[in-house]
Design brief:
264 residues; mainly alpha; 11 helices
């Protein structure tokens, strides 16, 4: 999704001379301020957890994972580069996203006039997946342990999907059937991943198909639902929800267990 959206929003601008400083500023202002605010909110929480543990031996020692090194890796968003992470752990994916942003700008700036640019992006994705599998035993290294090798190929597949979207008009008179089939394919492929991880790669194709179908100018029943104010607001605030969710699910169990004295 990020690769598709970034291609839609920035490829033409970069081709027309957008500077790296302007590009980096727009991405920084989109991601970093909220990340910084939420990270600062972790400081008193971890302080209280450490005080409770050290004084009353309640809970676990947060200093095992929440210490100065992991704080700095969070602060500077380098926690997808095989640097240990803690605190607001999901920010590893924001770090990986920033690496993908950098690679995206460089490749568009240097290679976008190449006739087979999008084919090259697809090939890059396949190469990185295979490289990861050979070196790590999985196609998508997880979280902080070289997590950027997970974001770059997915980003590249988004660029390839954008090329298909731009060249072909996927929708048409059968948009209702296309939306239904796409939704069914997504549910099926994601559900099957609970049976075998291999189906996760089938899910990737279902996500690509959803981009092609639901970004069409015509909308069926599902498309109209996605265009509703509720759905568009959910998309608008999705980053905020994501960046704060770990803080919430950390506080709530502690509140029930240690304040209300309720067992888990």
């Amino acid at each position: 999704l990020s690769g598709f959206v970034m291609a839609y929003a920035y490829i033409d601008k970069i081709k027309k001379g957008m500077t790296f400083s302007a590009y980096a500023k727009s991405r920084f202002l989109r991601l970093y301020p909220l990340h910084f605010i939420i990270l600062m909110m972790w400081l008193p929480l971890i302080g209280v957890k450490y005080l409770i543990y050290s004084q009353f031996s309640i809970g676990t020692d947060p200093s095992l994972t929440e210490h100065i090194q992991t704080f700095l890796s969070n602060l500077f968003l380098v926690n997808s580069l095989n640097i240990p992470t803690g605190w607001n752990v999901p920010t590893w994916s924001i770090s990986a996203e920033l690496v993908a942003y950098l690679v995206f700008f460089i490749e568009v700036k240097i290679l976008s006039n190449f006739k087979f640019f999008y084919i090259l992006m697809f090939a890059q994705a396949i190469f990185i997946y295979l490289f990861s599998f050979v070196n790590f035993g999985v196609f998508t290294p997880h979280t902080w342990d070289f997590g950027f090798l997970r974001s770059i190929p997915a980003f590249s597949l988004g660029l390839a999907t954008y090329a298909i979207w731009k060249k072909f008009n996927i929708g048409g008179r059968n948009i209702y059937y296309q939306e239904f089939i796409t939704a069914f394919f997504i549910v099926l492929s994601v559900t099957l991943t609970t049976l075998d991880r291999a189906f996760a790669y089938l899910a990737i194709f279902s996500f690509a198909l959803s981009l092609l179908v639901f970004t069409n100018t015509k909308s069926g029943i599902i498309g109209k639902i996605l265009e509703s104010k509720l759905a568009t607001n959910a998309g608008k605030y999705s980053y905020s929800i994501y960046i704060v969710h770990m803080l919430i699910i950390t506080i709530i169990p502690d509140f029930f267990q240690h304040i209300l004295k309720l067992s888990q």
